[in-house]
Amino acid sequence: MVFVLALVAGLWYWIGQSKLGYTFHAVICQPIVMALPFGIIAGDVTTALMIGASVEMVYLGMVAAGANIPADECLAGVISIPIALTTGIDPATAVTLAVPFGLLGVFQDQIRRTIQAVFAHKADKYAMEADVKGIERCAILYPMILGFFLRFPPVFAAIYLGSDVVQKILNVIPEWLTHGLSVTGGTLPALGFAITIFIIGKNIYLPFFILGFFAVQYLKISVMAAAIFGVCMALLITFLRREKVQG
Amino acid sequence: MEDMVKNEVVVEEGKLTKKDINKSFNRWYISAEVPNSYERMQGVSFCYSMIPCLKKLYNKKEDLSKALVRHLNFFNSQGTWSTPIHGMTISMEEEMANEGNVSDAAITGIKTGLMGPLAGIGDTIDWGTLKTIIYGIAVTFGSKGSVLGAIIPFAFTILTYFIGRTLWNLGYKIGKESVKSILEAGWIKELISGTSILGLFMMGALSAQYVTLSTPLSFKVAGTKIAIQTILDSIAPGILPLFVVFGIYYILKNKTQKYGIISLSIVAACILGSLIGIF
Q1: Would the CB atoms of B244 and A190 count as touching at under 8 Å?
Q2: A103, B48, B93, B277: least surrounded by Cβ within 10 Å?
């Protein structure tokens, strides 16, 4: 089972971060989505999804502005979910395992985008000769080949060899460290949300953030309910403002 | 427009059909981030997406070559909301091929001029608002172990695909003048302010749901133990998580936007806090 999980995780990371399909890859790169195939392989879909959801929470608010990714949730997921499923660690510990890989994944993207300048230059040459097929290879085929070597081997090895190591490490780390890591899992989502507030960049609307925050804290409404109330509020404000302008 | 395309049984040389336009869009949707490089960003993808149209418009090898070179230039925007640029570019290329009254510089100018503003709109609407709401709903299902958690996120794929495709076709139809006027039009501003309100409200709701931090610290007054967390909760629930979000926001805004450094600092602060017993 570990072998199959390692294989699928490696391929998933390769295909996912090759970024085929602008908002398709973004979805298959989500820990909560990849949890389903991993769960099917491991024979425990429920646990897999619970782990996937916990890891997902950390990356919920992350926005890659200008394509600079703050963290690689895909790598975080393809490593932590299979390892959690094989070693039987709980979702909170899985999150602490995911976090460092999420940071490591950023380097993968930087290496990829540095090397891929070569394909752009190749495409320049093909364009001079009006070689359409050549440009098409530079756009899809070459990046896919590069991506395979960049992504498949490390993920496959990490899961195939790593499960044992992780188990041994988890057995010896002190309580304050495991507690510290689960505190980290609870606070890291804040980074994602802060990034999104920063991207939206409308300071005068900040009270809406406070409103949403305490609507959940005091009234205990669910995310779905918040979405419904939020949409109505946004529409009302927009329409009322328009009415005022038109008199 | 619809009728015109349908009636076009005999495809003229140098004329584009709706099929070509959509084929172009699909190429963009598939490749937008695939050959991304620091030097050219989405330039190769842009060129790749134009190929079906350019091949049809330019029969002479040197003309085709010129057009291909033109679209390999630096391009960087958000994938679905930048598509009016592509649509418009196609209509300009069509005019250039047939009438010859559009200059190379005009096409490049429009591309580089609009990619920034449209990226801002796309980041706010797609990634800031839509994505977060849909994934947020998925997580509430996933944390109960429901398979729906893994399926709901694809709603984001479908929704954004059709937004992109619609705007691509719109860009082609209305041409270069109108896209500029759309950007300055009232409704786009309303759309942005509406989604900003929704986005911020949801960020607040999700922060309350998913950011957790509490302290085990306590002190003794006249023999009775008082937990600091109890005092904090009696002021307002969730003060610590709220403080964390705004603390990070302050750092992003005023100090640094290096995500890696900020994440590592958070990890370090949490572990240190756990060691000395304040978290």
Answers
A1: yes
A2: B277
Task: Respond yes or no on whether ipTM tops 0.90.
Answer: no
Q: State the Cα angle at B92 between B79 and B89, rounded to 5°.
A: 10
Min Cα–Cα distance to chain A from B224, Å: 27
Which tokens sit at B112?
Answer: 């580089």
Residues 6 or more apart whose Cβ sits within 8 Å of residue B172: B21, B87, B88, B90, B91
Give the pLDDT of residue B191.
83
Q: Which residue has the tokens 């893994």?
A: B150
| Residue of A14, A18, A32, A62 to mutate for B, most B C-beta atoms under 10 A | A32
Q: Which pLDDT score, from 0 to 100, does residue A65 have?
A: 64
3-state secondary structure of B13: coil
Q: If you search the block for the tokens 């750092």, which residue do you land on?
A: B251
Beta bridge pairs of residue B37: B41
Please compute the mean of the pLDDT values over residues A22-51 and round it to a whole number.
96
**Residue B208's pLDDT band (boundaries 50, 70, 90)?**
very high
The residues pairing with B10 across neighbouring beta strands, listed in sequence order, are: none
On chain A, the residues whose CB falls within 8 A of the CB of B190 are: 238, 241-242
Q: Measure the CA–CA gap between A223 and A227, rounded to whole angstroms.
A: 6
Q: Tokens representing A145?
A: 């080949």
Neighbours of B90 (CB within 10 A): 25
Token digits of residue A181: 């890591």
Phi, psi of B277 (to 5 degrees): 85, 20
Which residues of chain A lie closer than 8 angstroms to B238, CB-CB?
Answer: 213-214, 217
Summarize pLDDT for A48-61 with one digit per residue, the tens. 999 999 999 988 88
β B224-227/B218-221 pair status: antiparallel
